[in-house]
From TrEMBL:
SMART domains: PKS_ER
Cofactor field: Zn(2+)
Family: Belongs to the zinc-containing alcohol dehydrogenase family.
Entry keyword Metal-binding: yes
GO-annotated molecular function: oxidoreductase activity, acting on the CH-OH group of donors, NAD or NADP as acceptor; zinc ion binding
Domain of life of the native organism: Eukaryota
PROSITE patterns named in the record: ADH_ZINC
Gene Ontology terms describing biological process: lignin biosynthetic process
Designated name of the protein: Cinnamyl alcohol dehydrogenase
Swiss-Prot/TrEMBL keywords: Metal-binding, Oxidoreductase, Zinc
Organism of this sequence: Lupinus luteus
Amino acid sequence: MGSLEAERTTVGWAARDPSGILSPYTYNLRNTGPDDVYIKVHYCGVCHSDLHQIKNDLGMSNYPMVPGHEVVGEVLEVGSDVTRFKVGERVGAGLLVGCCKSCKACHSDIEQYCNKKIWSYNDVYTDGKPTQGGFAETMVVEQKFVVKIPEGLESDQVAPLLCAGVTVYSPLAHFGLKKSGLRGGILGLGGVGHMGVKIAKAFGHHVTVISSSDKKKKEALEHLGADAYLVSSDATSMQGAADSLDYIIDTVPVGHPLEPYLSLLKVDGKLILMGVINTPLQFVSPLVMLGRKSITGSFIGSIKETEEMLEFWKEKDLSSMIEVVNIDYINKALERLEKNDVRYRFVVDVKGSKFDQ
């Protein structure tokens, strides 16, 4: 890795405590090592897991913490062993910046399941220094965890794909759900959920959005192209949709009962958990046993899947629904995100922001 001497400095916006309030923070970056890519950040998406981390919801936060893990930027410098990237190219980086490279998961190109993975922030890198994320002017990332951005895709549009997009794409690919003609459900219409609708529709699925109220019905059907909309508290409609779905992508990031959604699945249907929840979930076993249903989970996606998903996104001419903000709006954006007041992903215009205010 890079030398520990004469390190660069950069400026990011960091949380100092569980209040989660971000403010400017100057810190050191390692120099560009042989396998590293030095990136000028242009855009960074805002994910619900950023909220969990800055507020210490999972009880493992370390401060100061610069969040942000949906990074799109420009290569400023490459290490001597870097062959895949050149100065000036547009690249992306996601939630991981390291792995052991020797376990079964790493050898199978599913490094997101490596037990020694290194998070892009709130973690410690191999040189012993804390990792910091994409709400910053620059980053240094090992080339293995960097992807090229295909020509024709807008940078601000791409940012949410590097977590939310691949988080949906990965389980659809892994569980054999890419084929057309399936009936899928998207539970929760936030940043990940809206990606789920778009990607599932692009695979040729009949898509039902499931939400706790009807306030997003028009957006789901008219703007995102969903085929149906279910309000989970409407017992009659839920009963009418019983045994109708091949899978449900559950994006809800807070505790919720599983029984209502298990009843919507066909025989051999899958409930795929994606929301980060720090309380136990419960269900009664007959709802699973009597339909040979599966409750499973999926975590982001691999670098290979990220590259596949970006090409798929370009091929299908898809677009993200985003709200672009400057970094000085980030605390308000996080406050709104906590209230689910965003359609459907905040993206920070890092390049166009002033970081020293």
